[in-house]
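Run: sequence + guanosine-5'-diphosphate-rhamnose -> complex structure.
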Amino acid sequence: MKTALITGVTGQDGSYLAELLLDKGYKVFGLRRRTSTPNYENVIRIKDKIHWLSGDLNDLASLIEAVRISNPDEVYNLAAQSFVAASWPQPIATAQMTALAVTNMLEAVRIVKPDARFYQASSSEMFGKVVETPQKETTPFYPRSPYGVAKVYGHWITVNYRESFNMFACSGILFNHESPRRGLEFVTRKVTDAVARIKLGVQNEIRMGNLDALRDWGFAGDYVKAMWLMLQQDEPDDFVISTGEMHSVRELLEVAFSYVNLNYKDYVVIDSQFVRPAEVELLLGDCTKAKETLGWKLDVDFKQLIHMMVDEDLKRVKSEMRYYELMGI
Ligand code: NDP
Ligand code: GDR
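>> structure
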């Protein structure tokens, strides 16, 4: 039985990855930071199957202890401050959690279990300003947010530990991937949640930022398979994971609202608070290397993804409404 340690296991990707590894027969350890309100929503179905470890990315001692206790064959470093918009008001916390913390995790592995295989969650946000399209492993980085800058650090320190200490360290440069477990502040989930609420009569409008931004959106359940595949290769390497298709935020609104027979133009209000100080106008990935080397492929396309998210939000909002009715709220 193989053993994996996942940081960020309570997040979107961590929960799908934990399910995938449990299905493959892994013993899964999940690192969880202490929060005043426990947040097990994404892992509710597998909570009892995960071996929980208490730790924080900024507390090296806790990471060393997590690696010592779990003695992992594979480490997936998914934890981060992952919301780009929050990285302007919280640039230092973002640098600590999204950049420096990667060194903490690599050090913990290097000191305690240097032969463990290591996955770093790098991001298409590192490409930022358009230098080349589509973007691939060799495209130069030009990050446009404190988050993007922090991810560039995390990416290069992972490459550096591979080259300096001969560690099996891989970096997955993943383009946007979404699911019904996506945080409510990210644009896809914000839209599908609003569509459900508007359809059910508990919301009147949705306030949005830049509708012209273009993104390469895939399904998180497909993307975690690529993370696992990267750690099964003979040699460590870095891979772009993407759909190779791009859609605008406006198109996302169109697809989500029309699915429930509504016109987004009747509900969208542009609000400058959601416009970013510097924008990444366009992301489009070329994942030929991953397809050829890893044999990775997509199962869910853009429309299926957005429809799946609207369906799940409709179910959730309906059950919330039933609960409030029962409670007389
Ligand atoms: P989420 O925001 O859903 O999850 C982030 C996770 O990190 C949560 O479990 C969170 O815990 C944990 N975390 C944050 N800070 C700390 C800390 N100080 N100590 C311990 N744990 C912490 O992100 P995703 O699942 O969407 O993304 C996973 C990773 O992939 C991130 O690194 C993200 O930047 C990167 N990425 C994501 C992409 C995407 O489109 N989803 C694309 C490219 C990269 P808690 O529940 O307590 O908040
Ligand atoms: P992103 O995702 O910044 O690409 O980072 P997000 O869904 O937040 O934004 C995508 C695009 O939509 C535009 N936008 C809005 N975004 C939000 N959140 N809210 C709005 O109201 C809104 N209106 C327009 C944004 O300006 C942007 O252009 C995600 C995260 O998962 C990162 O962790 C990851 O690294 C990258 O994807 C790849």
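>> summary
The two ends are 49 Å apart (CA to CA). Residues 302-327 form the longest helix (26 residues).
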